[in-house]
Amino acid sequence: xxxxxxxxxxxxxxxxxxxxxxxxxxxxxxxxxxxxxxxxxxxxxxxxxxxxxxxxxxxxxxxxxxxxxxxxxxxxxxxxxxxxxxxxxxxxxxxxxxxxxxxxxxxxxxxxxxxxxxxxxxxxxxxxx
Length: 129
Description:
It contains four helices and seven strands; from the N terminus they run βαβββαβαββα. By secondary structure, the chain is α+β, with helices and mostly antiparallel strands. It has one domain (3-117). Strands 2-3-4-5-1-6-7 form a seven-stranded antiparallel β-sheet. A hairpin with a 3-residue loop joins β2 and β3 (33-38). The longest helix is centred in the N-terminal third of the chain and has 12 residues, at 11-22. It starts with a strand and ends in a 12-residue tail after the last helix.
């Protein structure tokens, strides 16, 4: 399995973020997990919400305190260049959190700032990373 991250998008912005992703070129999939391309990159996108089963109550409480109601998307990516391309394309003007799957829950503006200011930044760099 490739690396993954989770987009946790505030309810009011979820349709826009999901729409930007689902507007990419779809290559295969079913109703809950589909594959898309962006340039030479291939992404898996899980839309079922089942990823929330991996969160404990404290994590879910923190996310709800920060966002209110939210929608999750599980994103599978092949490398960090591809992840940066997708994040940069899809998160603008939206409120949400990226769960890096490396211990950080980063607000969308912070992720976009890191991508813009530090081209070598990766999701594996934790904290102020």
